[in-house]
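Cross-check.
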Amino acid sequence: MALAINIRADNNSAAEIERLWDQVGAFEAAPSMRALGYRPHFTFAIYDGSAIEQQVAWDAMLAAVVGETQLRIEFKRIRWFEGSPLVLWAEPVVDSALARIHRAVSAAIDPAHCRPHYRPGAWIPHCTLGTAVADERRNDAIAFARAFDRSIELTFDVVDCVVFPPVRIIAEWRLPS
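Predicted model, tokenized:
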């Protein structure tokens, strides 16, 4: 079981990303994001096993968002992480609040406890659209990503701490508007 701290869009603005989930799901053997039962989000850190106690992670998340309000994040590109399976994700327009929160979490909990891709210097802010693009649909998925020419905006309004799999919210707090 793993533990993650996130910020999620728990409102109607999430519908745009969720529609992209459905489009990207067509490139997967089974749509991965709807299966999570969890809203569009950014993950700041993932800790495996018992590396970090839940309360420690939650306290770090709450401290990281002191003074923060709901984040309006714009997306203009779809990108991908290479590998098998290919992962598609929405790239946020540069947002200093996301970086600030990530830095605060990393300062509060030794990043050595965190999965390598979420450590300072490696973390790439992303809103996942699909985690399991089928190898035979890889080229189609990349063409879809390259053809994306819209701008969408979501309001990320809830921070939380979850355990997975399956995703189970263990603590959450709504950011002020």
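The chain has a mean pLDDT of 97. The chain has five helices and eight strands. Passed to J.P. for a second look.
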